[in-house]
Design goal:
Length: 234
Amino acid sequence: YAFNACSSLTSINIPNGVTSIGKSAFANCSSLTSINIPDGVMSIGNSAFSDCSSLTTITIPQDVTNIGDGAFVGCYGLSSIHVTEGNPIYDSRDNCNAIINSSSNTLLTGCAATIIPESVTNIANSAFEGCSPLESIIIPEGLTSIGKNAFAYCSNLTSIVFPKSIEAIGAFTFYECHNLTDVYCLAEVVPTTEHSCYDYNLQNTTLHVPSTAIENYKNSYPWSTFGNIVALTN
């Protein structure tokens, strides 16, 4: 909590010799636009930069081997996320503007500019939480699970495409996504979901699913709460 809620802080240069950034160290520094994380930093704590809404760019050095939960949650101003080549734990493959755990192919942190690589198989808890500029996203084939709160509070999200491979969606994944108008799910087998994975009001949202699976979706909660369920078209 060293600089927590220091709202007048606009930039900071962390000197060489620092090896860790603690829990919530810069959380709620709403005016922070840039930060230099030097080589030698090995750990970034839970919520270290959460709700730094003015932060536009983040570069993870090659020595970082631990990034805590929610380290960048609510940083909706991010337009560039990069992991330095040679990092043994994380990467930003294919210039995807995201932080990915290399061994598990799990996307940990994304932003409105993220393009999810086809090699990613999971989206972690809170990966896009609070990313209000995000309007639409296509989840590539091969991805099987989405963690809890992954897209929560993405208030401008209007559409999302799930691939055939999707199997599980966690709790509160799309909580407070009030502008969601179209959900496209290519999976013929209804994905396993927490009852609370969608916002409470889906009456104005259309669910597009394979024609052979419409009845299964209509009989499965919370999919059954969509205002309109129709067959996918080309």
